[in-house]
Amino acid sequence: MNCPGGVSTDTRKINKDAFFFALKGDNFNANGFAEKAITLGAKYALVDEEEYANNSTIFLVENVLKALQQLANYHRKQFSIPVLGITGSNGKTTNKELIHAVLSKKFNTLATIGNLNNHIGVPLTLLRLNSTHEFAIIEMGANHQGEIAELSEIAEPTFGYITNIGKAHLEGFGGIEGVKKGKSELYKQLQKNNGNVFINADDEVLNELAFSNNKITFGCKKLYDCIGKDLTLGETVSLQFTSRYGEKDWSKLPIINTQIVGRYNFINCLAAACVGQYFRVDDNLIKEALENYLSDNNRSQLVKTERNTILLDAYNANPNSMKAAIENFASYEAENKLVLLGDMFELGEYAETEHEALVKLLVEKKLENCILVGKEFSKLHQTQFTTFETTDRAGQYLKNKTITNTTILIKGSRSMKMETLKDVL
After folding, report:
1. Can you tell me the distance from the alpha carbon of 189 to that of 255, in angstroms, rounded to the nearest whole number?
2. Cα(364)–Cα(242) distance, rounded to whole angstroms?
């Protein structure tokens, strides 16, 4: 079946001659929209409820989602290009974007759009592959065990990269050991097909999980395949890198001054350099890619308003990324600082403990000017910091405060919409 309009799952965004897949979930059922999709220009539609397969352009299958995933896997098998699967507790999308920037200097590279990294997003990304692509980067997200294994079977990556193992989605994974098991499913898949993993070799947990894998290493502590030096002093990351067999006199190596905020992003930049070096992207082009990369979507952004400087990292949050952001912010040399933190979600029974730990860390780091937002933070019995149950209430408070000449950290889980606070700052 030739469908030049590609694949669609949403009648609001349908191209002419597309193939419409009528997906359904807990709160939606697109079977009833199949006929509308054809009317809007789709060439064919796939449904899994017989009553909607009412003409020759609408086909009935047992399960539309399964059919989408099987088609994506079949399509992926038609390509012999390198496919890099990326997962991890923090920084998946940032790493994907940085690596995409570097590889695009040499290859026509397909990458996951935004964070379409689940059981629907991964197949849709794979189905965008065409004969012009020379490389594919597939981001994989998960909130329970078995999910990365399933996505890896669909995408069949030839290379893998786990950014880190942290306290994300603890409720679904059943604790930190469950997170380790779930994320390392990518390593197991690559073992099966003799693939390679890119690994932060300074990370003991990742080293242990990848013990039996073919490894391409990067880090700062030993003579790895890619060796880096963190030169970050201000708000944005600066670094140098070399290879195992490259120049070791750091005074002769160029300094890369990126536009990405937060020292914790140094290792992400080094990972992108390592991937670039492995695939023989010229070092000068790697430097150019990292320096020109501009973060968006409320991730690691430096925002200058008329009155303040904002470190905006409000796309998502979990205990590890919050801790890294707080520690990074505490090291900044700024006369006036303000911390705005929103609740973390999907922590289950660990929610109270993890939110309390952040309050203790703020106190330990002597960050006295803090506003905590959300029901979890508001439940805590602490008196040091101002709390609001909602972001809207925090916004009203800040609007009346007229804060000026202040460096401000804004971070919280996606649903908290903490980025809206920058509008009053």
Report:
1. 37
2. 36
